[in-house]
């Protein structure tokens, strides 16, 4: 079983070497191999050169594939580029900073490997409020989580978590279009519109501030809320990725939102 770890990065020169080291050394369930795909989203701080030196067909801890975007388009665009390169049966999203601990991979993918889930989110709140999270960020997360639960019956404790794992065919089934940090609300909304349950597991979290390189801003919270509202109004069929006409089944049955 191959697990593809997608790492979108933008100006993470200081933290990327440590992230790659931790991802390479992170434990995986028995019988699993890792594929590390790093997408440089138009960095200007030397991240691209560092990534070119780190990339290799096969390295310690698994294959490393690097992709450099010509300009910065945002996390969502970088993840779509990474997904196009991924060959694993399971997709894990890993941020390029040090807020999330790759040692949580076994817990994150275990429900998928056991056949109990198609999608797993790593919740920062199941084990209690994370120490050091800014009050404004905590409030924004509560609002977005409440909106997702109200609009989509999602039953989540942490809608905005960056740690997400998917069966690859499920993620590829979605028509994902959002750039920047809109990936998180869009993927949540479209999964629920198609009837997929989202399983949660507790994870560790080590928050950082703007001075340490954190890039999400208040406008991204408002944009996320707008995406959650807009996706609720879409027809279910619009949540599906387009298929070549020859491959499209005559009648595709959608799993309806309860």
Structural class: alpha/beta
Relative strand content: 15-25%
Biggest sheet strand order reads 3-4-2-1-5-7-6-8
> Which CATH top level class fits?
Alpha Beta
Q: Which ranges are low-confidence, i.e. pLDDT below 50, for 5 or more consecutive residues?
A: none
Shape summary: globular
Could you spell the SSE succession in H and E letters? EHEHEEHEHEHEHHEH
Count of separate structural domains:
1
Instruction: Provide the CATH topology.
Output: Spore Coat Polysaccharide Biosynthesis Protein SpsA, Chain A
* Radius of gyration over C-alpha positions, nearest whole angstrom: 18 Å
Main sheet record: 8 strands, mixed
**CATH-wise, what's the superfamily?**
Spore Coat Polysaccharide Biosynthesis Protein SpsA, Chain A
Helix residue percentage: 25-40%
Number of helices: 8
N-to-C terminal Cα separation, in Å?
A: 32 Å
CATH architecture: Alpha-Beta Complex
Mean pLDDT: 89
Note the main attributes of this structure.
258 residues; alpha/beta; Spore Coat Polysaccharide Biosynthesis Protein SpsA, Chain A; 8 helices; 17% strand
Tell me what you see in this structure:
With 258 residues, the protein is of the alpha/beta class. It has a single domain (2-240), classed as Spore Coat Polysaccharide Biosynthesis Protein SpsA, Chain A (Alpha-Beta Complex). Helices cover 34% and strands 17% of the residues. It contains 8 helices and 8 strands. The chain has helices at 16-25, 47-54, 75-85, 105-113, 135-152, 168-172, 183-193, 218-233; strands at 2-9, 33-40, 56-59, 62-68, 90-93, 119-123, 164-167, 199-202. The protein has an 8-stranded mixed beta sheet. Strand 1 (2-9), helix 1 and strand 2 form a beta-alpha-beta unit. Helix 5 runs parallel beside helix 8 and helix 7 (183-193) packs parallel to helix 8. The protein is globular. The two termini are 32 Å apart.
């Amino acid at each position: 079983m191959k697990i593809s770890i997608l790492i979108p990065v933008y100006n993470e020169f200081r933290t990327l070497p440590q992230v790659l080291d931790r991802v390479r050394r992170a434990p995986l369930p028995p019988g699993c191999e890792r594929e590390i795909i790093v997408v440089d989203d138009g960095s200007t701080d030397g991240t691209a050169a560092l990534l070119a030196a780190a990339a290799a067909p096969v390295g310690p801890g698994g294959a490393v594939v690097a992709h450099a975007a010509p300009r910065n388009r945002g996390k969502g665009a970088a993840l779509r580029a990474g997904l196009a390169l991924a060959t694993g049966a399971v997709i894990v999203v890993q941020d390029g900073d040090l807020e999330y601990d790759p040692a949580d991979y076994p817990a994150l993918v275990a429900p998928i490997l056991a056949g109990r889930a198609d999608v797993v989110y790593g919740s920062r709140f199941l084990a209690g409020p994370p120490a050091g999270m800014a009050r404004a960020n905590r409030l924004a997360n509560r609002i977005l989580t409440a909106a997702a639960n109200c609009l989509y019956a999602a039953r989540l404790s942490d809608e905005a978590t960056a740690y997400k794992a998917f069966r690859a065919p499920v993620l590829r089934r979605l028509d994902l279009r959002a750039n920047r940090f809109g990936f998180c609300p869009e993927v949540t909304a479209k999964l629920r519109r198609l009837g997929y349950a989202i399983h949660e597991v507790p994870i560790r979290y080590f928050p950082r501030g703007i001075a340490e390189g954190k890039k999400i801003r208040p406008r991204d919270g408002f944009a996320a809320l707008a995406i959650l509202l807009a996706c609720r109004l879409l027809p279910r069929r619009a949540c599906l990725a387009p298929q070549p006409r020859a491959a499209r089944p005559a009648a595709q049955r959608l799993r309806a939102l309860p």
